[in-house]
């Protein structure tokens, strides 16, 4: 989790979901921890829906830009899948 948090803090791109907070365990015995990310209203995932040509034309440059941003900034998306887009 610390590694993902570090990576999230490095990302600053308009089409990459932003990190907004951290949920820390209340005590040593509490195992609950997590990251809070921005809410995306009415979001669609390429892993679960069919999209129109217009949506494809709109999303393709946005996805390409985000994917190109990562290695250009020393980051790697090693488990990329359509459901993450």
Tell me about this structure.
The protein is of the alpha+beta class and 85 residues long. It has one domain. It has helices spanning 2-10, 53-72, and strands at 19-23, 34-37.
Q: Can I get a quick summary?
A:
Helix content is 34%, strand content 11%. The chain is α+β, with helices and mostly antiparallel strands and 85 residues long.
Q: Topology of this structure?
A:
Layout lengths: L1 H9 L8 E5 L10 E4 L15 H20 L13
Antiparallel strand pairs: 1-2
Structure keywords:
2 helices; two-stranded antiparallel ribbon; 85 residues
Mean pLDDT: 77
Order of strands, widest sheet: 1-2
Distance between the termini: 21 Å
Proportion of β residues?
5-15%
Shape: globular
Percent in helix: 25-40%
